[in-house]
Amino acid sequence: MNPRRATFALPMILVAFVAADATATPVAPPSNPGAAAPRAPAPAPAPAPAPTRAPPKTVKFEAASASWTELSGFGGSGVTRAATPAVPSGLEVAVSGLAMWEYMDRPQSAEIVTKNLDSLAADSYSTNHQVEVSGGGSGDGKRTEFTGRRFVRGVQVCTGDEKQTEDRKIKGVKLWYATVEKDGRVVTEDSGTSWERPNCKVWRVARYCSADKVARAMKFSANPDNKWFQGIQLECMKPGLY
User: Which CATH entry fits the domain spanning 62-241: 1.10.1060.10, 1.10.10.10, 2.100.10.30, 3.40.50.2300?
Assistant: First the structure.
């Protein structure tokens, strides 16, 4: 035998065995009967519910905050007319102005101007509320009104010099205003607007709501025969954000 040829053949045989072993089917590791079964994956957490939004707050009057001012002018044994305007459900109105008419030298008709207390709300609302004494007619009218977020907070009437009973008739009116802010706060102003007739002689005592209130309604007093107006007072309420 040739020693060189025998030495060369051995590596070829080894290479063939290695190649065959590399392509052999892998054998699974022996099972462990004492091992715990794998746990199922935990379920995914439920999505959090969407947050509920509270309805937007609006400026409204505080319940049970109503109070009346004293009378500016004169009372009377005639019909006293309280004017609280009727408005759609859910809305709040406040007084923003006043108009009055004379017929045959007698103030017999009045129109209370009101508007939504939250004057910037989408459902803003305004209305006029008419009151009359017996025989009320259109006649000569005078009017004053505040705009924007300004509402009546004070009233003062002018009458004759009271030498006769008829001199108690209202011949002029001055209104003071306050601004109701978006958060319901009341900012009082030391100013107002007025009208008067030629026979306005004496400005009677002015009457005001407290600093945290504005007028929701007006009340008018009439003379004993219920022929003319001779006094005004205010129903005041406190606004807030609700």
Answer: 2.100.10.30
